[in-house]
Specification:
By secondary structure, the chain is an alpha/beta fold. The chain contains 7 helices and 12 strands. It has helices spanning 18-21, 28-48, 133-143, 155-164, 187-203, 226-232, 254-268, and strands at residues 2-7, 53-58, 76-78, 97-103, 121-126, 129-131, 148-154, 169-178, 181-184, 218-223, 238-240, 246-250. The chain has a 7-stranded mixed β-sheet with strand order 3-2-1-4-7-8-9, with helices on both faces. It has a 5-stranded antiparallel β-sheet with strand order 6-5-10-12-11. Strand 8 and strand 9 form a beta hairpin. 49% of the residues are buried. Keywords: Aminopeptidase, Hydrolase, Protease. One of its GO terms (molecular function) is aminopeptidase activity. InterPro entries: DppA_N, Peptidase_M55, Peptidase_M55_sf. It holds the Pfam family Peptidase_M55.
């Protein structure tokens, strides 16, 4: 049995603002240690429950945050950037389950450090379903028939996960006070909760269904600024909807939609203030 773990940073216990998640700033080194510990909590539980192979994908920023020397020695780590499938790099139909650790709620939602890939995105849609990183990544897992069984993060992340994935288990490691403040469990207690919820999710794995994406999905991204939409619409096959900052792309499948999203958001980041 194989389990895939995608680990972001904004939803880790005790992390509440950019000083914790930016590698240039003073709280980052502390934060990456806690991030590694929370990943290890899932890893240890998975091995204890009988999984033979555990793959972790470092999914935050430049994707080289997790301290490999502190991971369970039998773990394999996907690390570094650029990755063709970013937060779900290496995920395929050989896995039995997926866990998201340290995830955050989508842009336009209440929650700690909420966003969707970049700060210039206001909303993303797959057909009529509003998604952020969590939802988009769960759709890719669903494309391969693999269920997302457990998500850790703040209370708003849990609400988002539960609205998309019936039966998913959630470990709420902090409660939102504002976008940059929370009431958090200590790392020790957060890791205990993550182990407990992961164990329950593994026991329940056969009753949690994959989030199956639509065939030939339409991706629509609403940007905060018209300039960002202009840049994104330079990608061939896109359409800038008149009178909006929404860029549309008709994809052959969710994998193509995912890569289109990556290209569009990278282009949008070229927009300058003036």
């Amino acid at each position: 049995m194989k389990i895939y773990i995608s680990v972001d940073m904004e939803g880790i216990s005790g992390l509440v603002d950019h000083t914790h998640v930016d590698s240039r700033l003073h709280n980052y080194e502390r934060s990456r240690k806690i991030m590694t510990q929370e990943a290890n909590a899932v890893v240890k539980t998975a091995f204890d429950k009988g999984f033979e192979e555990v793959i972790i994908n470092d999914s935050h920023s430049k994707m080289n945050n997790i301290l490999i020397e502190e991971l369970h020695p039998e773990t394999k780590l996907i690390t570094g950037d650029v990755k063709p499938y970013s937060m779900v790099q290496g995920l395929d139909d050989s896995f039995d389950a997926v866990v998201f650790v340290g995830y955050h709620a989508r842009a336009s939602m209440k929650g700690v450090m909420t966003h969707s890939m970049i700060f210039g995105v206001r909303n993303m849609y797959i057909n009529d379903v509003q998604v952020g990183e969590l939802g988009f990544n769960a759709y890719v897992a669903g494309y391969y028939g693999v269920p997302v069984i457990m998500v850790s993060g703040d209370d708003q992340t849990a609400l988002e996960a539960e609205s998309l994935i019936p039966g998913v288990h959630c470990a709420v490691v902090k409660e939102v006070a504002s976008r940059s403040a929370a009431k958090s469990l200590t790392p020790v207690k957060a890791q205990e909760l993550i182990k407990e919820r992961t164990s329950q999710a593994i026991d329940d794995v056969h009753s949690i269904k994959p989030l199956i994406p639509p065939d030939h999905p339409t991706l629509r991204i609403e940007f905060a600024n018209y300039g960002q939409a202009e840049w994104a619409s330079l990608m061939p096959g896109t359409e800038l909807e008149p009178g909006t900052t929404i860029v549309k792309f008709q994809a052959k499948d969710i994998k193509e939609a995912y890569q289109a999203m990556l290209v569009m958001t990278e282009l949008a980041m070229r927009t300058t203030f003036c």
